[in-house]
Design goal:
By secondary structure, the chain is an alpha/beta fold. Helix content is 43%, strand content 13%. The chain has a 7-stranded parallel sheet, with helices on both faces. The longest helix has 17 residues, at 2-18. The radius of gyration is 18 Å and the shape is globular.
């Protein structure tokens, strides 16, 4: 009873900390499926709350007493990897889940030292994750949940070979959650090869994800 009360208090704290009011459509439809341990394909545009959609089920499965990597999130860019790791840190704050981001552009020795602190979730870009695997500084044999975030963007950036190599280093009995704005043939092939009867959740795209956000751009030369 006391344990359940603590869990509810932790969830309320996380909700207040992150400013949640209600679930977005992708969150409402994917979280219950993912919590059942099923493989899942979530198709929704960027900015619809996909990080929370896979973050909550991921956090629920983490054993904070275990000192090995239990979840891995693969993201296409350094910026997204940092953003996702920050969101997951907030989601796992009440449980004290250890989250580490690894990406190109950051000194690899620093990441190797951080990996020795035994993180439970890794968020990283395909190239840097594969680099750590090759160096044997990242071991994924205990991973139970793998997330492919913005899968179509990773395909567009030429990471398909790295993704396939990483997937081959993760246990077959894992849960795989794939999120993508579009579903090109190469992404469908990944799903067919590496996922087990995934449920598909497709959220209808809208012209604007957030109506109160104004978008603009400024042209600048490279030296600026």
């Amino acid at each position: 009873m006391l344990s359940e009360l603590r869990k509810q208090k932790s969830k309320r704290h996380t909700k207040e900390k992150m400013g949640f009011e209600e679930a977005t459509p992708i969150q409402a439809e994917t979280i219950p499926v993912a919590l059942q341990g099923k493989d899942l394909i979530g198709q929704a545009q960027t900015g619809t709350g996909k990080t929370v959609a896979f973050g909550i089920p991921l956090m629920e499965k983490i054993d904070v007493k275990a000192d090995h990597i239990q979840g891995i999130v693969i993201a296409p860019t350094r910026e997204l990897a940092i953003q996702v790791s920050e969101e997951l840190f907030k989601l796992g704050f009440g449980k004290r889940v250890r989250v580490l981001s690894v990406y190109g552009g950051q000194e690899i020795g620093r990441q190797i030292r951080a990996l020795k602190n035994k993180p439970q979730i890794i968020v990283g870009t395909p190239g840097r994750i594969q680099d750590h695997i090759n160096r044997r500084t990242l071991k994924l044999e205990d991973v139970s949940t793998l997330v492919l975030d913005e899968a179509d963007e990773m395909l567009n950036m030429g990471f398909i070979d790295d993704i396939n190599a990483i997937l081959e280093n993760v246990p077959e009995n894992r849960q795989t959650l794939l999120f993508s704005a579009t579903m090109p043939p190469a992404i469908r092939k990944i799903a067919e090869t590496f996922m087990k009867n995934p449920e598909v959740v497709k959220i209808q795209a809208k012209e604007l994800t957030m109506e109160n956000i104004e978008q603009f751009f400024v042209k600048a030369t490279e030296r600026e």
